[in-house]
Amino acid sequence: GGQGMVAFRREKFVPKGGPSGGDGGRGGDVILVADSNIGTLLDFRYKKIVRAEKGQNGGNKQKTGRDGNDVLLRVPVGTLIRDAHTSTVIADLDEAGERVVIASGGRGGLGNARFKTSVKQLPRHAQPGEPGTRCCQGVRAAGPALRQHREHARRRTLREACAGHPAGCGL
To answer: Is 5 exposed, middle or buried (0-12, 13-18, 19+ CB in 10 A)?
Structure first.
């Protein structure tokens, strides 16, 4: 996120204006979206590092910085997202339009106008913005044959679960 601002109000006929620093903006998120029109992960072969936009710093007159734009990455339906270190499955994008946030943006810092109190009327400090989450994800696309196998496995386990039920499932 963006940094908070240290600023003071200065006007001609206002001798003691006070603090007027604004807050920083929030950083953008990195979002994976399942798209049925995409078949491979070839786009990620050449762009391996993806970063969302940083939030802008706060301004004077208590102006908040602009939030960073999110980055939408389109992946094929059936994509598995794994943590690269532990290899646990984080998400399985098996429906078109499904979204998963894999890296969230940092929070913007507070400006000095947020720290004024009756005791401390002229705070001369502001907070820096917090960094967003860094992630090292493994993305693997499932081909059409693997998708059909997965659907068949789900139906089979559903049949096995319903086999003992007196009414049955009709599968």
So the answer is: buried
Q: Is the pLDDT of residue 5 over 50?
A: yes
DSSP 3-state of 105: coil
The total of other beta-carbon atoms located within 10 Å of residue 67's CB is: 19
Q: What percent of the chain has pLDDT over 70?
A: 79
Residue 79 near residue 139 (C-beta atoms within 8 A): yes
Phi, psi of 162 (to 5 degrees): -90, -5
Q: What is the dihedral of CA 43, 46, 49, 55, to 10 degrees?
A: -70
| Cα-to-chain-centroid distance, residue 54 | 12
Q: How many CA atoms lie within 13 A of 132 on its CB side?
A: 25
Please give the average per-residue pLDDT across 67-91, as a whole number.
Answer: 84
Q: Is residue 2 within 8 Å of 25, Cβ to Cβ?
A: yes
What pLDDT was estimated at residue 49?
80
43: its two tokens? 């786009």
The span from the CA of 104 to the CA of 84, in Å, is 17
Specify which residues 31 forms β-bridges with.
Answer: 72, 101
Taking the model in full, what pTM does it have?
A: 0.71
